[in-house]
Amino acid sequence: MTGQTAATPGLRAIGLNKAFGGLTVASNINVDIRPGDRLALIGPNGAGKTTFAGLVTGVLAPNSGRVLLDGVDITGLTQPQRVKAGIVRTFQITTLLNTFTPREHVRLAIIERRNMGWRMFGNAAHFTDVEQEADHILRQLKLHGDADLVTDILPYGKQRLVEIALALALKPRILLLDEPAAGVPASESKIIIDAIRSLPNDLGILMIEHDMDLVFRFASRIMVLVAGSILTEGTPSEIASDSRVRELYLGNAQREH
Asked: How far is it, in rounded angstroms, from Cα 60 to Cα 25?
């Protein structure tokens, strides 16, 4: 962890600890996610990656430690409150509605963010600013050609893009991408990589992923979590050359459930 002041913009996890009974699942985790960061979190099965994501997003409360956003302690905020503050996780946005189109999904997320309420959904198409924002997001992720097709008929890779579009509609400042390539056929993986590369440069992103090709193409920093503790953190080249990482993870990558 760098020697930043508490007021540094971005998200800071300071000394996070979490245990369930006698089982420690997070031990003294310290992480900075600054605006523009591209940080990947990797680790073997059971390393605690999902637990860490829960602690950052407010799904889980730490036994000790703090979470700061722009120097403000948000440890006590709920998950919905953290979404409003700008911490969004793709895994938590929503279950896609098969009969909705990508445009309708994004429109609904914009309405939610603006506190317009469900009663406005049927009329939202008449709000030019809502439609312009939705169209911008869909074009950014190259979904505009499929914007008015029901989600259920889209290839799975594009359904994952709809999830990312929903996240962008909530105006995140810190975005957690939870296995964005999970279940996506190799033939469609390029659209995931292209979509992630198109995300705003000032957005801080933490990716939890097992696809090492995607990790090394995405990340400027990689953090390795083992048994609830940070083993090491470094650039992709530093991580790739670390014999401990190769032994524990890279040489025998497993998908965490």
From this structure: 12
* Residue 46 neighbours by CB under 8 Å, 6+ apart: 227, 256
Collapsing DSSP to helix, strand or coil, 203 comes out as: coil
Whether 250 and 212 have beta carbons less than 8 Å apart is answered as yes
CA distance 122 to 170: 19
In a domain, 83, yes or no: no
Asked, for residue 10, whether it belongs to a domain, the answer is: yes
Residues spanned by the domain of 126: 94-169
Cβ atoms of 49 and 256 within 8 Å: the answer is yes
pTM here?
A: 0.86
Residues 164 and 194 in one domain: no
36-78 tens-digit pLDDT: 999 999 998 889 999 999 999 999 999 999 999 999 999 999 9
Which helix H or strand E contains 216, and what residues bound it? helix 212-218
